[in-house]
Design a protein that fits this description.
With about 425 residues, the chain is α/β, with parallel strands linked by helices. The chain is about 35% helix and about 25% strand. The protein has 12 helices and 21 strands. Strand 9 (about 90) and strand 10 (about 95-100) form a beta hairpin. The longest helix is centred in the last third of the chain and has 24 residues, at about 300-325. The radius of gyration is 23 Å and the shape is globular.
Length: about 425
């Protein structure tokens, strides 16, 4: 028998073997279910790296980099700031991540190509925040409503040039009720909804940077809330596609961080009316602070607003590739390599170096080959419930002096991951 035939028979035999489940440990802490960080390490094939500070830890591997802070909801995934639903905990020498965040944050960030609910994008609905009598935030250079509409128009022009169908919720200085805005996208099949805003701070002019929001998971607080409220328990229309919304937010946020030299305020979760009532993937972008003098001056320039629009358009295009071709969006490292290559090409050109390439060729660093698809089945992941707790129930959660229901354990998928 030929060696190639033997190899194929061996592969077929291996694939026919029963796939073993990878069981993860569940740890109860503060009345909530957590998963040891070592389970994440083993599942994603990462290695422990000591953090820069005693209260930090890092997992690193070919599939990505995860950074966590002890007793903090702040983490970073592949260099981009992302806010967890619940703080990472340290018990002895063991780091713990909430089951909600494993299912709703870590997994879609690490393996976006297998998110459920992704579908083809044929229409982009752009929503310029505020309008009419509602001017939004303001600086000495103008109102938020004006800058937001300008960005929306610029994004539209760039997407239309790329072959997209684009709808603006408003194309003039008019006021639209909040619920009417996502309703436009809800009425259009295969659409996504992107609401564009600028920020303001009540604490003075120091606040700066960009942040992107998708809907908070059911049973988890919004990023800017310190505790669960009854609103956290409500099922909203936006929860139908919360994972897809997270993927859209992450793609756009990474593009903004990759293109702009701005402070990364992170990918956050909220229950804003325009995203919680959307039945399509929906996000809200805060493109900078009009209350910060330097940032407000930059926002007032055509060049800066065009850079913002270009980044948003690229992030949307990356999401479309994810939704239709299951191609993961570019990472921050991809953007950095692209910028470095462009700088090198420009410097070589200025120095007289011949950079002519063969037709249809590209600089090596401008493209990253996709990861190889495994040729054999991988074990599904299952979570082992604590003894006597086959189905998680509502547990008391106390913050300050007010008791609330800790429903994260009830609303996070019981079997969130499969390999």
């Amino acid at each position: 028998m030929k060696p190639r035939t033997l190899a194929w028979l061996a592969l077929v035999f291996f694939m026919a073997l029963p796939v073993q489940a990878a069981t993860w440990e569940i740890v109860t802490a503060n009345g909530r279910q957590y998963i040891p960080l070592r389970c994440l390490r083993d599942f994603y094939g990462l290695a422990n790296i000591e953090g820069d500070e005693p209260n930090q830890t890092r997992l690193r591997g070919t599939k990505g980099v995860l950074d966590f802070r002890a007793n903090s909801r702040e983490c970073a995934i592949n260099g981009v700031r992302i806010w967890l639903s619940f703080p990472a905990l340290v018990s002895g020498d063991q780091w713990l991540i909430s089951r909600m965040d494993v299912a709703k944050t870590i997994e879609p960030a690490m393996r976006p190509a297998i998110i459920k609910g992704l579908s083809n994008v044929t229409t982009v609905v752009l929503d310029a925040g505020h309008g009419g009598h509602d001017g939004g935030a303001m600086s000495r250079f103008g109102y938020e409503k004006t800058f937001a509409l300008d960005i929306a128009r610029r994004v539209k022009n760039k997407l239309v040039d790329g072959g997209y169908k684009v709808v603006l919720t408003r194309n003039s200085d008019v006021f639209l009720p909040l619920h009417d805005r996502p309703a436009v996208a809800n009425s259009i099949p295969n659409s996504i909804f992107v609401s564009i805003h600028f920020n303001a701070s009540q604490q003075g002019d120091a606040a700066t940077g960009i942040e992107v929001f998708s809907i908070a998971p059911r049973g988890a607080p919004s990023t800017n809330d310190d505790f669960i409220t009854w609103a956290s328990l409500r099922e909203e229309p936006g929860h139908e596609l919360d994972m897809a919304s997270f993927a859209l937010a992450r793609s756009v946020h990474t593009a903004l961080m990759g293109h702009l030299h701005e402070i990364d305020r992170g990918l956050k979760r909220a229950r804003f009316a325009v995203i919680r009532t959307a039945r399509v993937p929906a996000i809200l972008i805060e493109c900078g602070f009009l209350t910060n003098p330097m940032e407000a001056r930059a926002i007032a320039t055509d060049t800066h607003r065009d850079d913002i629009a270009s980044a948003i358009a690229e992030g949307i295009s990356d999401y479309k590739l994810l939704a239709t071709l299951h191609k993961p969006p570019k990472s921050l490292a991809d953007y950095n390599r692209s910028i470095e290559t462009k700088i090198t090409l420009r410097e070589d050109h200025e120095a007289g170096v011949n950079n002519e390439m063969e037709p249809n060729s590209q600089p090596h660093l401008l493209s990253v080959a996709p990861a190889a698809t495994p040729a054999v089945p991988m074990a599904p992941l299952t979570l082992r419930a604590p003894p006597g707790d086959p189905q998680p129930a509502l547990r008391p959660f106390v913050t300050g002096h007010f008791p609330f229901l800790a429903s994260a354990d009830s609303h996070a998928p019981w079997l969130p991951l499969q390999r």
